[in-house]
Write a structure and sequence with these properties.
Elements lengths: L12 E3 L1 E3 L2 E3 L6 E6 L4 E7 L3 H20 L2 H17 L1 H12 L3 H19 L9 E2 L5 E9 L2 E5 L5 H14 L3 E5 L6 H13 L6 E3 L4 H10 L3 E7 L2 H14 L3 E4 L5 E4 L5 H13 L11 E5 L3 H12 L14 H17 L2 E4 L18 E4 L6 H4 L6 E7 L2 H9 L3 E2 L1 E5 L3 H10 L4 E4 L14 E2 L2 E2 L4 H7 L1 E9 L1
Parallel strand pairs: 1-5, 8-9, 8-11, 9-10, 11-12, 13-14, 13-19, 14-17, 16-17, 19-20
Antiparallel strand pairs: 2-3, 4-5, 6-7, 7-23, 12-22, 15-16, 18-21
Helix pairs in contact: 1-7, 2-4, 2-6, 3-4, 4-5, 9-10
Bound molecules: nicotinamide-adenine-dinucleotide (NAD).
Nicotinamide-adenine-dinucleotide binds next to helix 7 and helix 8.
Protein name: Aldehyde dehydrogenase (NAD+)
Family: Belongs to the aldehyde dehydrogenase family.
Keywords: Oxidoreductase
Length: 483
């Protein structure tokens, strides 16, 4: 976002809400201006919505709700698969939008769009799953359970994988029979709006998917406070997750919270060190380190510490800002990531690579950071405890398996744990004791739409993805009939 919200600039493309199957201008008529992170130049005017726009969207969702629920499984499934197909058919255009909003390299943007299509495909194919059980309670009773949708689901998402995270929540919510009011990040709104437009084009009834644009305080909070919104799925920072949690507690509505991470990547001395080094570097440079599941704490057994960190340095040299490493999203985040260079120095960490801003020829105004590794880090340092959300990894030595587990768990977060070892018994022992929602052994972050995803501790609660997510978007009703 630029420092000032601009109301009158008309030379930039404007993006408006998608409510009740149509483009709708903001009730207040205000726009926010976004900046292209590759160039630092103004990019887009995004409608700055209000509680009034949210109310309009929720009313449209309420009107659509019963109709959507009455759709039979085959109809819902066909529409979901149709949307998956439309996203794929438009993938180059969607990837260009994502790239312009977030600056990510084209390959990353394309992968994200493909992942988004897969959510609609996967959940569209689950419509035929049985939704309840018959319970043998007593001979004179017929007792069964059924899963019911909540109704209107609020979906609030961040800027790092914009369409992917929106699709990750919207697809299971819809397949469970809910309708949706979603708010993408005000920084990266284009693809979520386009997805809703495509949904309309393939035949989704109006009001089933509504998108309201604007800031967290004006639109996000209004969604959480709206009394017709019966559940909220939030992906974003811990601070905002807490704020939403307070409102949800007052309203007694359920939440799915997908928050931050500071995930441990444990390298045991018997690992394939070349492979582990390449993957460890990918772990904190993918999407310029702006992923919640980034493996930013690299725990290396002391006997191989020097050899391994040298291998990491060689891998980091292959990462080129402006080519396979995108910029940091906003000027504010750019400053924030840089502030950790000073923190690292004060903490006494050793710069193994990077530690500087990068200049990319032809994109001198872009917000680029060199891929950075700090060595001789201990886990108490701020750079080992705080989520930096930039291409920064820290290498922490450890001695024993027990040490590795203790250090890995000595974090407020618990999203991912990765470990590298040829000893499968050890791998299973360690996997069992790491406090994280997902563990990878001898591979990093190969997730799929089928694998449930979520956190422990400050990384959040509830689960997205997989069949599991459907249970988080529906509740069980028990029906007892005397016969
Ligand atoms: P953020 O919390 O600032 O914003 C996320 C969304 O919440 C945005 O749409 C924002 O406008 C909205 N928002 C802000 N304040 C709000 C409020 N008071 N009420 C309601 N909505 C509000 O996060 P961000 O900076 O956009 O994204 C980065 C964070 O997201 C990182 O911490 C990252 O780890 C986390 N994240 C988590 C996951 C996951 O799946 N666990 C995935 C991606 C990102």
């Amino acid at each position: 976002m630029s420092d000032q919200a601009t109301l009158n600039r008309t030379d930039l493309k404007a993006l408006d809400h998608w409510i009740d199957g149509a483009t709708v201008a903001s009730a207040g008529g205000a726009y926010l201006e976004t900046v292209n992170p590759m160039t630092g130049q103004p990019h887009l005017r995004v409608a700055s919505g209000t509680a009034e726009d949210v109310a309009k969207a929720v009313a449209a969702a309420e009107r659509a709700r019963d109709g959507w629920r009455r759709f039979n499984a085959a109809e819902r499934g066909r529409l979901m698969l149709g949307l998956a197909h439309a996203i794929r058919a438009n993938r180059d255009r969607l990837a260009e939008m994502e790239r312009a909003d977030s600056g990510k390299p084209l390959a990353g943007a394309l992968a994200e769009i493909e992942g988004s299509a897969q959510y609609f495909e996967f959940y569209g194919s689950l419509v035929y799953l049985p939704t309840g059980d018959v319970l043998d309670v007593a001979p004179d009773q017929h007792v069964f359970t059924k899963r019911e949708p909540y109704g209107v689901i609020g979906v609030i998402t961040p800027w790092n994988l914009p369409l992917n995270q929106a699709a990750r929540a919207i697809a299971p919510a819809l397949v469970a029979g809910n309708v949706v009011v979603a708010k993408p990040s005000e920084i990266t709104s284009q693809t979520t709006i386009e997805m809703a437009r495509l949904a309309s084009e393939v035949g989704f009834p109006k009001g089933v998917i509504n998108i309201v644009l604007g800031t967290g305080l004006d639109v996000g909070e209004a969604i959480v406070r709206n009394e017709s919104v019966r559940k909220v799925a939030f992906t974003g920072s811990v601070g905002v997750g807490r704020a939403i949690g307070r409102i949800a507690a007052e309203r007694i509505i359920p939440l799915t919270l997908e928050l931050g991470g500071k995930s441990a990547n444990i390298i045991f001395e018997d690992a394939d060190l070349d492979l582990a080094a390449a993957e460890a570097v990918k772990g904190f440079t993918l999407n310029a380190g702006q992923v919640c599941s980034a493996g930013t704490r690299i725990l290396v057994q002391r006997s191989v510490y020097e050899a391994f960190t040298e291998k990491m340095r060689a891998e980091v040299a292959k990462i080129k800002p402006g080519e396979n490493l995108g910029p940091i999203i906003t000027p504010a985040q750019f400053q924030r990531v840089q502030s950790y260079f000073k923190v690292a120095e004060e903490d006494g960490a050793r710069v193994l690579a990077g530690g500087k801003v990068a200049t990319v020829s032809g994109q001198e105004g872009g917000f680029y950071i060199e891929p950075t590794v700090y060595a001789d880090v201990n886990n108490a340092m701020r750079i080992a405890q705080e989520e930096i959300f930039g291409p920064v990894g820290v290498a922490i030595p450890f001695d024993t398996e027990e040490d590795a587990i203790r250090i890995a768990n000595d974090s407020d977060y618990g999203l991912i744990g990765t470990l590298w070892s040829r000893d499968i018994s050890r791998a299973l022992r360690v996997a069992d004791r790491i406090e994280a929602g997902q563990i990878f052994v001898n591979v990093w972050n190969t997730m799929s739409v089928q694998t449930p995803f979520g956190g422990h501790k400050n990384s959040g609660y509830g689960r997205e993805k997989g069949i599991e997510a459907i249970h988080h978007y529906s509740h069980v009703k028990t029906v007892t009939v005397k016969i």
